[in-house]
Every structure is written in C-alpha cells, then in structure tokens.
Queue: 2 jobs
Job 1
Amino acid sequence: MSLHVGLTHFLIVSTILFSMGIYAIVTRKNAIMVLMGVELILNSANINFIAFSKFGNFGLGGQIIALFIIILAAAEAAIALAIVLNIYKTFTHVNIDEIDNLKE
Amino acid sequence: MSLYDIIFYLFAAITISSGFVVVSSRNIIYSAFALLFTFFGVAGIYVLLGADFIAIVQILVYVGGILILLLFGVMLTNKITNVDIRTGSIHVLPGAIAVGIILGLLSSAMIWTEWKTQPSETPVTTTTALGKLLLNDYILIFELLGILLLIVLIGAASIARREQE
C-alpha cells in the first residue's frame, strides 16, 4: 500500500464508512439514527462498486448497480419513515429498545 | 504526491470525519447535518473515480431527497417544544468492540488481498453510455424499479396516513 492513491485507498475509505454505519445501527436508540446508519452502509457499498468498476476495467456495470442502489435507498427511506411515523403515533417515541409490541 | 492524491485525501477526510460526527453526536439534528457533508464527500469520491453522472445523482437524490426526508422524520418524531432532541445510545462498549473487530478484519482483507487492478483509460463523460446501458442491457431492471417506486409511493402514503375515526 503506497502513498499513491489506488484501489486499496478507496476500499479502506468504504470500509471505515461501513464500520461507522454498523456502529450507528447497533448502538443508537433513535430509529431515525438507525436509518442514517443504513444510508452510510449503502454509500460504502456504492463506493466499492464504482471503485471496482474503474480499477477492474469492467466497463460501466458497477456504475449502473450504484444507480440502482441509490434508487432502492430512496424507496427504503420513504417506507421506513412512514413506518417510523406510525410508530411515533402509537408509542409517542421512536426508541427502538422500548418498542416491543406490534400493537398497543 | 500529485494533485489527484491530495484531493482524494481531502474528500476522504471530509467523509470520514463527518461520518464520525454522524455516529457519535448526541444531538440528532447535528447528526443529520453531518450526514449532509458525508454525502458531499462521497460525491467527491465518485467524481475522482470517474463517475460524474453518479455523483450528480448522489447530490440530487441523497442530499435533495433522502436527507430532507430524514429531517422531516426528525422534526415529526420529536417534541420540538420541549427541546428534547437528544438521543441515547445502548451497548456502546460491546458495539464498539464488535465494530473494531469488523473494521480490523475487513481492512486487513482489503489491504492484503492482491487485487488485479487494471485502470481504465482517461475518464470520459459517462452519461451517454449509462443511458444506452439503461435502455438496452438493463431495461428490465429499469422498468421493475419504476414499478417499485410506484408501489413505494402508494405504500408509504397508505402506511403513514391517519386513520379515519
């Protein structure tokens, strides 16, 4: 691993981003923070796809997959926030460690 | 150390430091705004990787769409009048240890693997090629994603609406 920026550098950045997303998911109470952790993880996967698309000389397949991941992330955020708003209406908070019923 | 390297380290520092603020800040509003800078940093990394179209989509969709959605979620699920937008953490120490192990394993795998790198030619604009790929090779997934977005729109509206009494 030299100082000159290559594939490994991008992979390391994406690994750090992935670890921070996992940390947000396992330790934070607020459901919105868990969603932010999921977004961090999706971004790190995107960096990996685009890095391999450039350095592996595979053409543009990796970039297409990254585009699909961004669309799926938007869909996931919309549905998850609808669910979170419903949880808030039922329990008046969104702390996922205290939500253990499907209905009141 | 060329200009490319310096810009890479700059964007990597922006991404990682603001990502650290996202996961460590106790105020969820600060986390949301740090997430904005994380997304911008990731968009810069995309540009460095020669993916200009994806970088623009990242800024449009993530910063313009998902982040606004998350901010709506923050505002709608906290009692703003009581100014209680702090959020706690649970299992911090075991979580940090587990994440440290994951980080060590993954990064050692990334560093010690002999990747067969074969850099592509000078970066070209990718928009035209991406559009051709989307409407030829990936047309089925493209259409399916359109249907998925329609279903998500209807589903989110029907989940989040208030029930009539």
Job 2
Amino acid sequence: MVDFFLDYTQKNSCGECVPCRIGSKRMQEIVKKISNGSVSEEEISILNELSEVIGASSKCDLGKMAGKAVKFTLQYCKDDIDAHRNGGCGYSVPANPGWKAIVLK
Amino acid sequence: MANITCTIDGQRVSVPEGTTILNAAKQVGVKIPTLCYLEHVGLRHVKHEVGECRVCVVEVEGKKDFVTSCNTPVEENMIIHTHTPKIIAARKLNLEMMLSDHHLDCPTCPKNGICELQKLCAELNVRQIRPQGEKKELPIDDSSPSIIRDPNKCILCQRCITACRVLQTVDALELYGNGYDAVVRPKGGLPLIETQCVACGQCALVCPTGAILEKDDTGTVWKALADPKKHVVVQTAPSTHVTIGEAFGLPVGTDITGKMVAALKRLGFNAVFDTNWSADLTIMEEGYELIHRIKNGGVLPQFTSCSPGWIKFCEEFYPDLLPHISSCKSPQQMFGPIAKTYYAEKKGINPEDIFVVSIMPCTAKKYEAARPEMNAAATYWNNPNITRDVDVVLTSRELIRMIREAGIDFANLPDEPYDPLMGEGTGAAQIFGATGGVMEAALRTAYEVITGKTLPKLDFEDVRGMKEIKEASVNMNGLTVKVLVAHSLGAARQLLDKVRAGELKDYHFIEIMACPGGCIGGGGQPIPTTVEERENRIKGIYERDKKLKIRKSHENPEIQAIYKEFLKEPLGHKSHQLLHTHYTPRGKSN
C-alpha cells in the first residue's frame, strides 16, 4: 500500500520541491527493496531518516503525507517489514480481499 | 508599517511587518543557508523566493513541520530556531537527496569552483550521499550557438525561469512533468534554438550549477592561434575593460584595460584592437542616421541596435516595430567587416587569412555573429573563401579561462597599449558598456554635429544608473531632442507597448539594452553578477570615461582617418555595404 501511495505521490507531485520530487522516489526505491526482500539494515535506517525529513520539510501536504505514511509504516508495521525481509509475508492482508462480495452481502 | 518582534536563536529582534525569517535572522547576525533563493534577479524588484530546495528550513515553536525562511514572514512573538540538530540533519539530507540525482562530474564541470551547490555542500559539511537510486540521463541541448543546457545538472531551482519570464518577459523556459520526472525545459520541449529564446544569457548568470552555460569556443581560438597561416585579430568590448579583473581577485569595477591587452598579446593574438573604436564608428553612423531621420521625416523614435538579445526580442515579439530600429550594425559587427577590408588593405594581408575574435560580455553576440547576413566582407570582395565577419565570439568568462589555461599572472601584468588603426577608443565608446551609455555617447556627438557648438557639459546624468526607464531631453538649436533609455527586456516591453500604441511619437531616440545594467550585466560576464556587482562595474565605466583624453566619438583621430581614407562619409555607399544591416520578422505570428 505504501508503494502504491508513493507511486501516487510521484504521479501527482508538482516536482517543485526536493523532498517530494527526489525524496519520494528514493523512499519508493527502498520500499520496493523491502517488498522483494533485498533491503539492508542501513537502507532501513536511511528510509527512517528520509521519511522524517520529507514529512517535515516538503512544500505541501502531498510530500508531507508521503513522508509521514512511510514513517508510520516503519513504526507500526515492523513485523510485516521483518517478514518481508525474511522472505515471507505471513501477516499481510491479500491485495484484493473481495470487498465487492462483502459489500453486496 | 507596524514592527513585529520575534525571537531568533534566543535573540529578540524587531522588524517591519512582512520581513521574512531569513532577513530578520540577518539582522541578528544569523546566516541561514540558502540555495534556490535569490534576492534580486538582475533588478532589485525581481525576487525569487519559491522555497524549492528546502535548505533554508527552520523550526518554529508551536508548528509541527519545518518552515522555509526565505518566503515565510515573521509573526508576532514567533520563536525560531535555525540550527537545532534536527534542522541541520534535514538540511544535509535535503542536499544528499539533491546530490543523489546529480551527475557528480565536478572536476570537469565548467562551473567547477563557482558552483553554488558545491559551495553549499562544503559549507554544510556534507560528506556522503546515502540515498542512492536511479539517475536521470537526459540529452544535452547544444542547439543554440550561445547557450548549452545540461538538464542532468539542473536542480530545478527555477531561477532561470524567473529570469526569463519575469525579468526578460521572454518566457522561453518552463517546468514540465510530475514528481521525479519533472524537468526545466525550453517551452514545448523544443530544442532551445527553435524557441523564442533571445540568447541573452541571464539564465546562465543565475543558474547555481552547471545546468545552463555559454557554449565554449575557446578550443577554436586556441587552434586559430596555433595556425601560422592565420592572422588572428581580437577586439575587446567596452564592458570587459572593467570586468575581467574580478576573476583574478581585483576589486569589482577595476579598470584592467592595459592588463587585458597585455594578456591578449601574451596569448598570441597578432593584433589587439578595441571594440571601443568600432563603438565610436557606430555613433558616427547611428548619430547621422538619427539626424537624417529627424530631417527627412523618417520613422521615429529610432531604436538603438547594439544589443543582439534586444534585436532578437524585437524580431520575435514586436516585428511590426522593426522599422524603428537603426539599420546600423552593432560595434562588434562593424569591427568584423572593417578588419577584413580596410585593415586587410592597409596591412596588405589576404582577407581570407584574417581570423576575427571578439571578447564580449554577451552570449547573444555568438548568435549575432552566426547570423547568415553577417558576411559583408565576403560580399565586398566577392570571395566566398572569406569566412564570416566575426569568426569566433568569446564571452568574458571564456577569456578568463584562456588566461588561466595559459598560466598568465593577470593581476600583475604591466599595462600595454592597443595596436594602432582600430585601437583608439573614446570615453563615449567606453560608456557603451553601461545602460544609457550609447544614448549619452550619441547625444555628445549629435549635439555638436547639429549645433556646431561645443557641448557645455559632457555628462548626461539623467540617463545613467540602475533605474529601469530613464528619460532626458536636450535642446539642439531650437529642436528639443527627447530620448528614453530602458534596460532589461521587461522594461523594454513596457516602452514598446507604448510605442505600438502611438504614445511615444514625440520622442526621437530610444536606447534598449537586453541585460539589466547594460553590457556590464551581460549573460557572458563573470559569475556572480549581482545587482551590487552591476552597480560597481557601472561606476568603473564612468571613472574610465572621465580618465580618457578624448570623450567624444567624432573627435577620435582613427575614426576621422577611416572616413577620410576609406568610408568617405557616414551613411555613404561603403558604410551601407559594410556597416548597415536588415532585420527579419520572426515569432509565432510570422
């Protein structure tokens, strides 16, 4: 979901400020590495710093949201991240749980 | 205006309402680093404070996120912290982000040593680039003979856009795209040469990195200098006389004419001449043209034609006003054909072997020299083997680089004189380098030619200085000649709109210079070229004018000689052949 949101950020960023323009791209690159299990401890720490700085110093709320979304993910979804790093994804919710069917019921 | 009191790093400060945090901090001796911010873009009122780089962020108590100091006004009782560990870390990481997408070829970058990004990284102690990832590989745009764009080095600070859109009103650049793919590019993504760019180079002056710079032609000149068959002559523009020294540690505005001549001789030029000489020639032709237009009911007001950026601007945006422009070529383009005709004849040199180099403050001069119609010498001799009138144009910055390459100790050079025949220049020509100068020089000559009397006071102070639009009127034998002066194309546009609306019919002469401050603020001048530097260089120009023995163009003995021996009379047959030109309507509607 974070990857998806960073994609959204990239597509909608006006490109004017550095944290949003370049920072969200760098964050996304690391998030993708988390997903495919190739991320290093150092990269997680950079991601932490990036999310903090981008969340506080972007020009508008779009960049700030991108930073904060990653920051909260790192804070609250640690288990999920660890699971990815260990090669599995035990805790995650399937991408499409079939909302349509649930709502229609 | 009410004053506002706030606290910056523990110090209380009271500033007028609307003052930014950055300026308030300056008052208590706190320097907040900035990168994209530029206080004055060419002129004092053109500001650039978009808050793009996020380097100047500070912490304000009670606010969750950081704020940029360059464009946030202080509020009553604000408590501001400018260098907490969090802020310092954020600044550095912002720079690291920027560098993670930067081509780090600093040692070979033409901006090496004067790059603001480089300087800031040193200042802020950036020692590593931790975030790593994709780097942009965008094509370099070298379509223009004047300006090269390397978008890979662009940090999207948008200073160039402000210079182009707000200062010059040319609007040839735009920010395009979203997110990481955003770029600053010529309008519509076209190569620069196909846009309405006038090549003034103001974008290059404000670019903090090596993303926009002049096209480097030093290699061609080195090659010509090494060719024994070539007779290489060089001319130096009025404004270079007071600017080259800056790069060698001399105070801004120092008169280095003698040293520059010595340096050029050491570089191996066969003859060193002065564009001041052809500026005097321009005054003779342009002054007589004005008198001719006034006497014969020609198109008035007459516009000056010395600034090639301005010429392109008029061709692009005001093609209907082209008949107002004087048909005289600029001093640079008057020098070229004369060197390949008069000088060649006098010295018995085959004009095919003469190679003309110009030292100019201007990037648009490269474009001007490349215009297809600028080959009068070849037409004069009816010899297609003669190359174009001016072979290579070097900006002040390129000459500075050549002097450095040759290992010349510029600051300690002895003064040397120009070569005779085309080397004598008057004070009138010298002031061509500053805004209002061409006008003042023209008035000095026109007054004496029309009235037959000696001018009681040479200095026309009304047309001097950094005020955008200046006005003067001079009584000449009952005729009140009214003149206007504008510098920067934004100011020119204001005047041109009035001319188009028919509001300036009772004016006779309008001087327009594309660059703020005139040529001393040209796009090829040493970097930085700030408003302060422009003012100091202007001071240097008028000091040199005062020092010179001859201060009126028509009193220049070498100019008198060329009319006697070669041209015969201003606006004569040969003058028309070699010194006058025509213009081409361009722009979207043409």
